[in-house]
Amino acid sequence: MMKLRYLGHSAFELKGGGAVILTDPFLSGGPESRLSAESFEEVDFIFVTHGHSDHIGDTEKIALRTGAIVVANFELCHYFGKKGLTCHPMHIGGSFEFPFGRVKMTPALHGSDIMEGDTIIPGGNPCGFLFDIGGVKVYHAGDTGLTMDMQLLAEEGVKAALLPIGGNFVMDVKDAARAVNFIRPEIAVPIHYDTFPVIKADPGEFARLVGSAAEVRIMKTGDEMELS
After folding, report:
1. Distance CA 124, CA 98 (A)
2. How confident is the model at residue 39 (pLDDT cuts 50, 70, 90)?
3. What is the DSSP letter of 154?
């Protein structure tokens, strides 16, 4: 059993295997009203898909306050480590057995460099994550365009695929619907849209294009679902 709560944009809280896990916790400072870093008293792990500010988000604040372990690519872990965070570095194609379950780092087509003022800091490769918690598999695509590598996920028996649909920086609704046909999840959840004008998209159109290929669940910030 896994509980999934949508925190807005690309951020989720996963509870399962005795752990509380956050992904890309862009909470405070966003254009929408969301939970803040202070909303979380207990977090065990934070998974970061890449170095852009709308995905790193409140990682530093939450990790320093809760002691959460940050999981990201090697370069991002080096960056976070210099800020006093405890990290577990991974790279594309690698998998690891965490106390709560197994996670594989998957490819993503995007950027990952970090902006601090006018300085660009190399952020390594962008990625997604395939979580396997008690046999329930959730794929968080991160920020990505459509890639043929997604077809490999069809063999995984993915329960829920969390897919960006906003276009411009990531897949649009048409390519995201094609991704569903590649991955063949039971449930498809559109993410990374409407946060900014340039990524405005219609999740209803995404659902129509997916059709019977998967159950599309359009989640609002704060919505939860249980997966088993």
Report:
1. 22
2. confident
3. G
* Three-class DSSP category at 90: strand
Q: What are the distances in angstroms from CA 206 to CA 89, 163, 177, 197?
A: 34, 10, 6, 18
CA distance 116 to 200: 26
H/E run at residue 77:
helix 74-81
- Cα of first residue to Cα of last residue in the chain, in angstroms, is 5
Distance separating alpha carbons of residues 200 and 14, to the nearest angstrom: 26
Calculate ∠ Cα 167-129-152, nearest 5°: 85
| CA distance to 111, 119, 228, per residue, from 142 (Å) | 11, 23, 22
Q: What is the pLDDT of residues 133-170, one digit of tens each?
A: 999 999 999 999 999 999 999 999 999 999 999 999 99
CA–CA distance from 47 to each of 66, 86, 195 (Å)? Answer: 14, 12, 20
Residue 59: burial class (beta carbons within 10 Å; 0-12, 13-18, 19+): buried
CA distance 188 to 206: 10
What's the pTM?
0.97
Element (H, E) at 139: strand 136-140
Whether 141 and 130 have beta carbons less than 8 Å apart is answered as no
Contact 84, 70 (CB under 8 A): no
